[in-house]
Automatic annotation (TrEMBL):
Keywords: ATP-binding, Kinase, Nucleotide-binding, Phosphoprotein, Serine/threonine-protein kinase, Transferase
Reaction equations catalysed: L-seryl-[protein] + ATP = O-phospho-L-seryl-[protein] + ADP + H(+); L-threonyl-[protein] + ATP = O-phospho-L-threonyl-[protein] + ADP + H(+)
Family, similarity comment: Belongs to the protein kinase superfamily. AGC Ser/Thr protein kinase family.
Keyword 4Fe-4S: no
Protein's UniProt name: Serine/threonine-protein kinase Sgk1
Span of domain Protein kinase: 84-341
Region listing for Disordered, in residue ranges: 51-77
Domain of life: Eukaryota
Taxonomic lineage of the native organism: Eukaryota, Metazoa, Chordata, Craniata, Vertebrata
EC number: 2.7.11.1
Species this protein is from: Esox lucius
Gene: SGK1
Biased composition (Polar residues): 67-77
Pfam families hit by this protein: Pkinase, Pkinase_C
GO molecular function ontology, one term from the record: ATP binding
Amino acid sequence: MKDRTSLLTSFMKQRRMGLNDFIQRLATSNSYACKHPEVESILNLPPPQQEAELMNANPSPPPSPSQQINLGPSSNPTAKPSDFHFLKVIGKGSFGKVLLARHRNDDQFYAVKVLQKKAILKKKEEKHIMSERNVLLKNIKHPFLVGLHYSFQTAEKLYFVLDYINGGELFYHLQRERCFLEPRARFYTAEIASALGYLHSLNIVYRDLKPENILLDSQGHIILTDFGLCKENIEPNGTTSTFCGTPEYLAPEVLHKQPYDRTVDWWCLGAVLYEMLYGLPPFYSRNTAEMYDNILNKPLQLKPNISNAAKHILEGLLQKDRTQRLGHTDDFEEIKNHVFFSPINWDDLTAKKLTPPFNPNVTGPNDLRHFDPEFTDEPVPSSVGCSPDSSLISASIKEAAEAFLGFSYAPSMDSYL
């Protein structure tokens, strides 16, 4: 039991790290040495900055300093940080933080994602941030995807004003309960699959499904969030090849650095379902090189404490050959029609008519019991609600501001009709 606790603690700390930082650490360390040539090839990737420079060998010229920031099609062009009272840190990422905020005018609560432009530009991640914004704009019609109310920017920061979801990360609940019973895992997997199927219908591949990016709302329904690694414009038979994701959930074709398609999301769905049923992702090892070797070469092993239907869908989703993977031929329709989901009425599911198996029992917006104290104990930065005096903005900050032209957004009223 002690060894299992140590393993879980190590696992939880490790997966808080972004993949770029993770690969950079691997590239400068010999502690993950592995004899398998394919794994050595993966671990010998160039550091992320160098990789980004290779990908941007012919960058477009920088915007003219005379250009003004374009607020975009916004019905709220005057939005500013001081509109909000920032209450608590509820999440952290590579480029900034997510804060619980109350709007000063209407007292509504929001999750405001605040990103540092300098950090984004330093790692050449502008495209991912703008892609996240673009995907958020398309989410207004699906019940299991987080909604964007509007976005705005200052010279130094970007702000996403998002739905406030306070039932906790799926990761947080798994951490506390170790694993879920099969009916609960099936319910969550169905709602996640519905969200992925909707994104695929818009030719968007999600690419970063993991329990940290899956939230529960106040009733216990799934809400998918964090669209920074989404890839747009992937047709049903289209592929992409960017090496990205989270180490524990990387599909074999991504590790092989081969072109991959939307079935990469179904692999990740299988990995999350496996983790919900067994407590750790499939093929997991504390030694990352060994874990990669397992993903590429080790047969899937399923313990006997789950139903035959659950075993069958895991074998289908965690098929190493993507052309044989469940979902390859008919995408979400194949997932929906699998026997594992026979108890699910999909129309009732998307209408939120099915009672969630777990109710977070939150008392209101100020109830933060399901957020990790690692976040909520952190003081709210005093700078987060400041709008700098434009006369004091340096040339480098102006350059950062101009890199995100068109970021700001507020929906027209008919978006909600």
